[in-house]
């Protein structure tokens, strides 16, 4: 589980639209990775819309932004089309990247325990080092907080 100051685990994942993304191939751009539980749910839709709305500002600061969940590329494509999202979504169907980043955790809801993605965001600097980590994210205002941290790099 990477923490601030640690190297970000490298990966290659397929994305919506049929391409793939390799984290180390994005250098020297800073990267924002936000992990979210499931496409087309209330909180995840709000988060994706927030990052999409601010994407031009992230790009103006030189950063790349990606959402990651265990949903399939086909599901991502539908989610992107339905909500006109501009943030690329990466598919981690086998959960290996979620495990590497420590976001696949035990969760509880309505008295039931299950495994799922803990909403988390990682800001990775131009050298591939984790600059900041947000765990157990609350969606409201989060994209703005990440943008502010990016600008402070």
General description of the model:
- 29% of the residues lie in helices and 27% in strands.
- It has 153 residues and is an alpha/beta fold.
- It has one domain (30-151): 3-Layer(aba) Sandwich (Glutaredoxin), CATH 3.40.30.
- A hairpin with a 5-residue loop joins strand 8 and strand 9.
- Helix 1 (42-60) runs parallel beside helix 4.
- 33% of the residues are buried.
Percentage of residues assigned to helices: 25-40%
Give the structural class.
Answer: alpha/beta
Write down the overall geometry.
Answer: globular
**Mean of pLDDT:** 97
Provide the number of structural domains.
Answer: 1
Portion in beta strands:
25-35%
Q: How does CATH name the architecture?
A: 3-Layer(aba) Sandwich
State the distance separating the first and last CA atoms. 22 Å
Strand order, main sheet: write it out: 5-4-3-8-9
The top-level CATH class is Alpha Beta
Taking Cα atoms only, what radius of gyration do you get, to the nearest Å? 14 Å
Stated plainly, the CATH topology is called Glutaredoxin
Q: What does the largest sheet look like?
A: 5 strands, mixed
- CATH homology superfamily name: Glutaredoxin
Contiguous helical run count: 4
Q: Encode the helix/strand succession as letters.
A: EEEHEHEHEEEEH
């Amino acid at each position: 589980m990477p923490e601030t100051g640690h190297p970000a685990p490298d990966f290659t994942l397929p994305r919506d639209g049929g391409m793939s993304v390799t984290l180390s191939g994005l250098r020297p751009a800073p990267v924002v990775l936000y992990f979210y539980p499931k496409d087309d749910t209330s909180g995840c839709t709000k988060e994706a819309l927030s990052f999409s709305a601010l994407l031009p500002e992230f790009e103006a600061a030189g950063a790349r932004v990606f959402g990651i969940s265990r949903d399939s590329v086909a599901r991502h494509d539908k989610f992107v089309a339905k909500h006109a999202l501009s943030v690329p979504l990466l598919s981690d169907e086998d959960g290996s990247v979620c495990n590497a980043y420590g976001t696949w955790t035990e969760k509880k809801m309505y008295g039931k325990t299950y495994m799922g993605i803990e909403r988390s965001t990682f800001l990775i600097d131009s050298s591939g080092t984790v600059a900041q980590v947000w765990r157990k994210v609350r969606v409201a205002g989060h994209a703005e907080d990440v943008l502010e941290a990016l600008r402070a790099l």
